[in-house]
Hints:
Helix content of chain A: 25-40%
Oligomer: heterodimer
Radius of gyration of chain A: 15 Å
Distance between the termini of chain B: 31 Å
Structural class of chain B: alpha/beta
Order of helices and strands of chain A: EEHHEEHEE
Number of helices of chain B: 4
Strand content of chain A: 25-35%
Structural class of chain A: alpha+beta
Amino acid sequence: MRAPVTACPQDMPRAPLFFRDFDAGAATTREVLLALRVALHGNGQAPDLVSRVEQALAEVLNNIAEHAYRGHPPGPVSLKVVALADALLIEVADHGAPLPHDLPGNPDLPPLDVTLPEMPEGGFGWPLILRQAQRVGYRRQGQINRLQLVFFG
Amino acid sequence: MELESSRINGTLVIRVNAERIDSAAAIRFKDAVRAAAAEGPAQVVLDLGRVDFVDSSGLGAIVAAMKFLGPARRLDLAGLTPEVNRVFRLTRMDTIFGIFDTVEAACAAKAVG
Lengths: 153, 113
């Protein structure tokens, strides 16, 4: 199943279940994901949903650290998670470079019918995001990237 | 990244004693596997039984380990948790690696084939 990408994300509707401001980077990403996992389990969210959210968000946060802030010191990231009746709505904002135009809609996996030396070691991030979230929305607002993900339980 | 190597029936088994192979760990993981598998049998099994999270960086590091072994050697995976198994399935990497429920099953498969 692949998530359709909408042009204009919605406003975050209510008080978040989880909220965190931090600097992009591998160590902070791990720390925030582990804290989010605990918060979602504590909130009674289904284990499969929690796992999908962690997987997709890992890719989003890695992309921000490695691409949006490439060549810059670690910049700020803001993560909000809101529980809806039947879904989790997640917004990630950063001040880095905008997403390339052909992302975030491209779900294609890197080709695997290649020789061993050509076997891909990257290019899995967006396909993983689009295979685990049911909705993905992106908006460039001034100097800010806003990415919204919706996960149904 | 702590790895533990052992030999079972001529197969090199590398157990990953960590819960995450993520972007914070991927480079150290790659280096540690290279060191552990630099010499040894053609058959290498990576025991992922303790790992509950692999992101795309971790996946790339496991692919790099396979490439490091070269065409004459083979990297199989064992003991994948459901979360880790899903990453391999969603990226179709489950078609590239031999994936076994247990280390014993992976080693037995090696003995036959």
